[in-house]
Structures are given as structure tokens and as C-alpha cells.
Write a structure and sequence with these properties.
Structural class: alpha+beta
Order of helices and strands: HHHHHHHEHEEHEEHHEE
Distance between the termini: 69 Å
Shape: rod-shaped
Helix content: 55-70%
Largest sheet: 5 strands, mixed
Number of strands: 7
Number of helices: 11
Length: 472
């Protein structure tokens, strides 16, 4: 049979029941002692009253005896005193049958008859006096016995009350200590937990196995609150970190905008002049080595002009003409244009697109797709695979470009969309602006660009999410 869980209410009820039981025993002991003492004192008082009445009867008998035995006998007075003695004795007998004494009554009757016959006889009066003395002695012994009984009962009552009061006090102290221990112990644990939460330690719960159900439930709720606070703090820290990165990137883009304006004005024209002069030099007959060197210089000049154009595009942001289009068809067209490139040779392509209508600038969207596909080709080995997928999820169109190439390290993930940051090395190293421009274009379309990777050697996955236009 399963034991009932310990609860503070059940514990308190049991302890209060024990305390009330002790108090009830004390009250019963007091009632028993008071009732017994009252009974004993009643018996003693009743004995004193009967003894007083008996003394009155004896007083009248003594008066009658004195009247009959004097030098001048006074029989009328003796008869009067005897009648009074008989009346008092009769009242005693009628008020309490236990006080009736046949010997005293007969002796009084003979003395009254003798007095009526004018025959003075001390012996006749001595008999009831002797009987009354015996009765008085018996009453005195009864009174003494009742007093002794009252004394013993008083002692027993006092001892019992003292013992019960001591037991009640000890039970009260025991109950108080148990309650203090049962309440203050869990409260100290909870206070320690509160201080720990205040110190920022939210992920370590605490348990009170020996506590009552109420405190265990409170500890469980407190742990849930701490875990929720921990989760909320983690989420808030992640949001703050993301907002900080976004702010840093915005500041960098602002700096890039200022830089691009100055560079475009100060460098673009000289680069154009340099490119034109090199074209003129290449048009003249020169040695093949010099011609090759001029071609390399011209290529680098055009590369500088491309960097300046991208900087201007990044600083200006996307501002193309928006129109309704099928994003699946755009993705398929870009893949169709990229697959014949020599750099894409040998890669296995998987294209799975579904129609989804969005409002966007076709040129900008193609630029984003082209940038992601060229990156996938660049970082995927010749025998690797590239997957392009377009799917609708509610009101969002998801364009996914995935590869099984070299993957992305966790330390690189947070910096991948920073301007001028590039993971390529050697001849493949780019300007570090392609992903930053792509993210800027997607966000200008109220969308998002995210990257996922399980680390080096596990490939990467870029996901573009754009809002779908319904009924357009």
C-alpha cells in the first residue's frame, strides 16, 4: 500500500490533534478532580449538618435531664424539651433516611412517656444520650473519612494535572520545534535558491526531497521559473548579439557608403584613363611578353572598377523595379545559365523547383541566385553535388542552395555576411562583398538570407525566404 505524501497541512493537523488530545485529557482530569472534591466536601458538609442537628437534640435532652433531676423537678419543662428533641429527631429522619436511628427514637419515646407519668428517671434519659453519642462518633468518623478522601483526591488531582500540563507543554514544545524545522528548513533552501537566481545562476535547479508536498511543489515551480528565466535570458542574449551584429554591420555599411562615394569620385576616373591607355598600348605591335603583362594590368584595372561598382551598389542598397514573378522560374533560369560554365563541370546538379509568386526585381534576384551558385561551385569539389530547391511554406517562398563542399567553420558563420570578409584563399579570393550585397538585396525585399552548416567537411546550405503574393 502506497504511503500518502507528506503534506504540511496533514502534519499540522496531526500535531494539533495531539495537542488538543493533551488539552482534553487535562480538562477531563480537572473535571474529575473538581467533581470528586465537590462530592467529598458535600459529604463532609452533610455530616457536619447532621452532627449539628444531633447536638441540638442532645442539648434538648440535657435540658430535660437537668429539669427532671434538679432539687425542684420541673416536669412540664422536661416534657417540653423532650417534645422538641423528638421533633428535631423526626425532622432529621424525614430529611434524610440515612440519619434515622431507631435506638435513639425508642429511647426518646420511653423518656417522653416517663415524663408524662411524672416519673423522673435519669436512666431513661441516659439511654438516648448514649445512643446519640455513638451516632455522633459515627458521624465524626464519616466526616474525617470524607476529609481524608478529599485530601487524597486533591493530591491525586494536582499530580495528574501537573503531569498532564507537563505533557501538554512538552508536546507543544515538540510540535513547535517540528513545525519550525519543517518550515524554516525549506524556507532556507528557497532563500538560497533565490539568492542563487539573483546571482545569475539560473540553470542549476534544487530539490527538497525531505520537505512537505507544499514546499516540494513550490521548489518545482521555482525551478520551472528559473529555467524559463534562463531560456528567456539565453534568447535575449542571442537577440542582443544578433542586434549587435546587425548594428555593427549597419555601421560598416555606412562606412562603406562614405568610402564608396569618395573612391568612385577619386579613383574611377583615373582607372578609366589607365584602362584606355593600356588598350591603346595593346593596339600597337609589341612583344608577346609585354602584351601579356598589359593584359594582366588591364584585368586588375577592371577588377578595381568592379569593386568600386559593388561598393556603390552596397551603399545605395537595392532600388530596382519590383514586379510579380515566379521565383521558381527565376531560379531554374539562373541554374540553366550557370551549369554550362567550365567551373561547374563535373558537379552533380539537383534542381527541384515549385512555382511561387513574389514581388521582386528580377535583375537583383538573379544577382543573388548567381552569387550563391557561384559560391557553391567555388567551394564544391569537381565530383561534388549542388542542390537547388524552391518550396512554399505558408506565406513564405523558400529558395535553398545546398552543396556538399568544404563547409563552414562555426567561427566563420557569424562573419560570413560582413563586407570585405572572404574565406577563399589564393587566386580564388574575392572582394568579400558578394554575400553582403546579396543579404542587403534580400532584406530590401522584406526577406531573409540564412546560412547553415555542420562544420568543415559537411557542406553548407543557404536559404532565402521571401513573402509570397496571394491573388496578385
Amino acid at each position: 500500500m502506497a504511503r500518502a505524501p507528506k503534506t504540511l497541512a496533514r502534519r499540522l493537523s496531526a500535531q494539533l490533534g495531539l495537542l488538543l488530545g493533551c488539552l482534553l485529557l487535562t480538562a477531563l482530569g480537572a473535571v474529575w478532580g473538581v467533581r470528586g472534591l465537590r462530592q467529598d466536601f458535600s459529604q463532609a458538609l452533610d455530616g457536619y449538618e447532621r452532627l449539628r442537628q444531633l447536638y441540638l437534640v442532645g442539648f434538648h435532652l440535657q435540658s430535660a435531664r437537668a429539669a427532671m433531676t434538679s432539687d425542684f423537678p420541673d416536669f412540664p419543662r422536661a416534657r417540653l424539651e423532650l417534645r422538641r428533641a423528638q421533633q428535631l429527631h423526626g425532622q432529621m429522619a424525614s430529611s434524610n433516611a440515612a440519619t434515622a436511628d431507631g435506638g435513639v427514637a425508642e429511647a426518646l419515646e420511653r423518656a417522653a412517656v416517663a415524663a408524662e407519668a411524672n416519673r423522673p428517671s435519669v436512666t431513661v434519659l441516659d439511654l438516648p444520650l448514649a445512643a446519640m453519642n455513638e451516632r455522633a462518633e459515627s458521624l465524626r468518623q464519616g466526616i474525617a473519612s470524607a476529609q481524608r478522601m478529599a485530601d487524597r483526591r486533591q493530591q491525586v488531582t494536582l499530580i495528574a494535572l501537573l503531569a498532564l500540563i507537563t505533557l501538554t507543554v512538552m508536546a507543544s514544545i515538540w510540535i513547535a520545534r517540528r513545525q519550525v524545522r519543517a518550515v524554516l528548513g525549506p524556507l532556507k533552501e528557497i532563500s538560497h535558491g533565490v539568492r542563487r537566481v539573483a546571482a545569475g545562476q539560473l540553470e542549476t535547479p534544487f530539490a527538497m526531497q525531505q520537505a512537505d508536498v507544499e514546499f516540494a511543489s513550490l521548489a518545482h515551480d521555482f525551478n520551472d521559473m528559473a529555467l524559463q528565466l534562463h531560456a528567456g535570458r539565453s534568447t535575449l542574449e542571442a537577440r542582443v548579439e544578433a542586434a549587435t551584429r546587425a548594428l555593427v554591420q549597419s555601421e560598416r555599411l555606412a562606412g562603406v557608403g562614405l568610402l564608396a562615394a569618395g573612391v568612385a569620385h577619386e579613383i574611377n576616373n583615373p582607372l578609366s584613363i589607365i584602362a584606355a591607355r593600356i588598350e591603346l598600348l595593346r593596339a600597337k605591335p609589341v612583344e608577346p611578353a609585354i602584351n601579356a603583362a598589359l593584359a594582366d594590368v588591364l584585368e586588375e584595372v577592371f577588377r578595381c572598377k568592379t569593386i568600386i561598382e559593388r561598393l556603390l551598389q552596397l551603399s545605395r542598397g537595392a532600388a530596382g523595379h519590383r514586379e510579380l514573378m515566379d521565383v521558381g522560374r527565376v531560379a531554374a533560369d539562373v541554374v540553366q545559365a550557370v551549369r554550362p560554365l567550365p567551373a561547374a563541370a563535373g558537379r552533380a546538379w539537383s534542381v527541384d523547383v515549385a512555382p511561387a509568386t513574389i514581388r521582386a526585381d528580377a535583375g537583383e534576384l538573379r544577382q543573388v541566385m548567381l552569387n550563391l551558385l557561384l559560391n557553391a561551385i567555388q567551394f564544391t569539389p569537381p565530383d561534388g553535388a549542388i542542390r537547388v530547391q524552391v518550396r512554399s511554406h505558408g506565406d513564405v517562398a523558400a529558395i535553398e542552395v545546398a552543396d556538399d563542399g568544404q563547409g563552414i567553420a562555426p567561427t566563420v558563420m557569424n562573419r560570413l555576411f560582413e563586407p570585405f570578409y572572404s574565406t577563399a584563399a589564393g587566386e580564388r579570393r574575392g572582394t568579400g562583398l558578394g554575400l553582403a550585397i546579396s543579404k542587403s538585396i534580400v532584406e530590401s525585399h522584406d526577406g531573409s538570407l540564412e546560412v547553415f552548416s555542420d562544420g568543415i567537411g559537411h557542406g553548407s546550405r543557404f536559404v532565402i525566404k521571401l513573402p509570397i503574393v496571394r491573388g496578385g
